[in-house]
Amino acid sequence: MSIEDKYQSLISYFKEPARRKTFQAWPFKNNEKCNANKMAEAGFIFSGSSRDPDSAQCFFCHKHLDGWESTDDPWDEHLNHSKECSFAKMKNAQSHWTAAEWFELYSQYRRNLIERKYDEQRKKVKELFDKIRSE
Ligand SMILES: [Zn+2]
After folding, report:
1. Structural domains in the chain (count)
2. Distance from the CA of 10 to the center of ligand 1, in angstroms?
């Protein structure tokens, strides 16, 4: 996957339904507090595997959390472990945000992604440069 494609797919996680789709193998049921809908609502995407079935990551601040319990509140856990995350600070489903809140968070998210993308590209160029110089 090219850097361009990777960042396009990361941008899609700004939408709650795209995050919810990642939770197909989530171990908690819908009647439990820590269910897939609540996880997606609170900004998480599933990042687990068969060995690590309850691992999730915030799409916005990239904080990784595992060891979830059925009674955990995803918003509370998110904020407790990532106090500076602007998404977690909202403590409210995106469907309840104002247009101004949407704009602010979306712009912040795009800025963060662009910075990450440039860091990654800078690293690649430096590696190439080092390789050429060492030949
Ligand atoms: Zn976060």
Report:
1. 1
2. 14
